[in-house]
Amino acid sequence: MKVYNTLTRKKEEFVPLEEGKVKMYVCGPTVYNYIHIGNARPMIVFDTVRRYMEYIGYDVNFVSNFTDVDDKIIQKAVDEGSSAEEVAGRFIEECKKDMADMNVLPATTHPLATKEVDGMIEMISRLIEKGYAYAAADGTVYYRTRKFKEYGKLSHKNIDDLQAGHRDIKVTGDLKEDALDFVLWKPKKEGEPYWESPWSKGRPGWHIECSVMSKKYLGDSIDIHAGGEDLIFPHHENEIAQSEAANGVEFSKYWMHNGFLNIDNKKMSKSLGNFFTVREVSERYDLQVLRFFMLSAHYRSPLNFSAELMEAAKNGLERILTAAEHLRHLLQNAPDVSLTEQEEALLKEGKTFEDKFRAAMEDDFNTADAISAVFELVKFINTNTAADHAKAFLKSLYGQLHTLCGVLGILIEPEEEILEKEIEDLIAERQAARKEKNFKRADEIRGLLAEKGIVLKDTREGVLWKRV
Ligand code: AMP
Ligand code: ZN
pTM value? Predict the structure, then answer.
């Protein structure tokens, strides 16, 4: 399998650190609002990478954080007269609903920055001990960027060019030793949430959060670190500087970045007012259409969101769903007889589409070509299936379509209503798992229910649930 690595600017053969296992970290959203469709792109793209890796047999440990304390969250809380915790908690739940509707699997772990502050203080202390960081008189801790000799290796920037760019904007009264130094810990302002630390009452900088959460849940060295291309610099560059200086080993072997989503060929941005939330799109389309649209382009290319392209995605998806329905219909009365020679030969031909699909995905996750292979399979199904075909023949083709669509996160089965009894059983199992401190299973069950549109609320009186 070939993966494009931003670090080397090449497609490289993927070799995991540990055989059969993949450790993957994807930078998650800052939760001060509903997620927009730009945020949805890395979610969908890297969920598909995960699904493909699982399909070819890897055991994937997938971690994606929520940044639940930051200036924008605090500002929103001030505007609303609530707390940062309340704002973040609410939008994490909303984000999880959108993810479930886009068929994005819950991560193995979704850590929250605010719950990992101890680890951040520990890593910052280690960086100070090693001379990579220093506390200024006002209680801010900075990273000593020039001390990290490989700074710039991910974004392919030369540190002296960066220095020149920074000189103009150096603010007087700044307590940094050097304009390139960035913040690891910042003292609180009046009314802001804060944590105690050896340097000041305050909160961590954004970059240190990911270094610490990745280390805690995946270890010092991981296989893949991913996010949107805007994160290459400075966020991921700074993460490398922090993690490699603190841990003394390579942080991530592969770095993957998705291209940007534009609207009507213009950069989507909140200031231009030309952005859509996933929730808004869900009012007009099933979010499977949004997913299908995102996968219709290569993940590293820029992608333009427009009404025409969404309509095209909707039609394409319908073609696949219609073929699946046609097969289900035929299967109801198909004769339970053994395969004819002709059917055997057709199934062999059918398998070539799966080979094409795999070849496309093995080439740096070329989902556009993988979708073409699915369309070829659909055409093959439409021309080669009829009421007199053996059940085993139809089932095999259905299974193949189901599997390939499943790798793309496209569900072809009509959604089944989950029964109350099943919900209650899963909740009971989750409670038992929590009692045994098996939080992984407990989170998995919450995710499973979220996928089916069931949200849980833990209260003092027990667990309440509702359909959303
Ligand atoms: P943020 O909440 O801004 O940190 O973004 C969360 C994730 O969404 C990051 O991986 C960003 O790179 C990604 N992202 C934000 N806007 C876009 C966009 N317009 N297109 C693609 N990815 C984006
Ligand atoms: Zn990050």
Answer: 0.89
